[in-house]
Amino acid sequence: MQVSELDLQGNNFSDQVSGKAFIGVNKHLLALNLAWSNITRLPAKVFRGMTALRNLSLAENRIHRLPGPVFHDLRSLEQLTLAGNSMADLIPDVFRHQMNLHTLDLGYCNIERISWNTFNGLWNLKSLDLRGNRVQHLEQFVFSDLVSLHSLLLGHNPLRRLRSKVFHGLKNLKVLNLAESSLERIEFDVFRDTPNIELLDLGDNRLSFLPMGTLLLPHLEHLTLDGNQLTDIPNEVAYLPALRYLDVSYNRIQSIDRCMLENHVHLEYLNLRENPFHCNCSIFWLRGLKNKLMSRWKDNRKSLPFVPGKCWMPVNLRDTLITSWLDLKCVREQDTSKCNRI
What we know:
Elements: E1 5-7, E2 31-33, E3 55-57, E4 79-81, E5 103-105, E6 127-129, E7 151-153, E8 161-162, E9 175-177, E10 185-186, E11 199-201, E12 222-224, E13 245-247, H1 258-261, E14 269-271, E15 276-278, H2 286-296, E16 306-307, E17 310-313, H3 328-336
Parallel strand pairs: 1-2, 2-3, 3-4, 4-5, 5-6, 6-7, 7-9, 8-10, 9-11, 11-12, 12-13, 13-14, 14-16, 15-17
């Protein structure tokens, strides 16, 4: 049979997938879907002879372990989805023959450990999804073979700490998601090996500060820091020439230096919601920034480009929007002040 696509999702195979199940169609298959099929075990030779297969989905099954040679013949594989299984550990070199793989989804697989040679040989991989696992520690150089990687999703893992050289080799990385990873500490040079990041999501962690130099990323456009414990916006934000999107909502910020954001010519979105702002002359300049962002807003179907927080102090201004109160003294001071920081 010269079948090029085979969709078997939603069946109830359990451990009844034979090692010879696909012998009749293996040479011509380009896509095979076995998702949601209650598979608990894969025979080591079940994909034998599938040298043309490009897309394989094994998502949402009950696979606990991958046999070492199970993907050996899949030399043309471009997309592999294993999301939603239950594999505490990955066998080293299990993907070493998938040199053409560009998308690998290992999200929500209960993975606890990733060894230094797990991703050996995946030089052409563009997207790696590891969200929703149980990884507590990332070894240095663990991603070093992924020199073509554009997107790395690590959110929803109990990482707590990021060490230097964890992202070594990821010089082409553009998207890095670390949201909801229980991060408490990030070493200052952890992003030094990822100079081309455009989107960085550190939202919903436990960060109280970022070491000086952490965010010196010249191509960064989208920065999410919401839901942390920051008392200030990191100083490096003032030196991000490409910044378009900044979310620092749900932190502990009381004031913002005028020179931090006022001269960002590309800024399109700023979210300051739920911070305990002290409404005095030091933040009065935000009224002007709001007007500037609103004047650039062209698409009424999208959310507002400026989400203001509310005053916490003084008490008489509590719950007043930080851009709604007025003080003539602050108006005069603002007229005479200048910002030449950027």
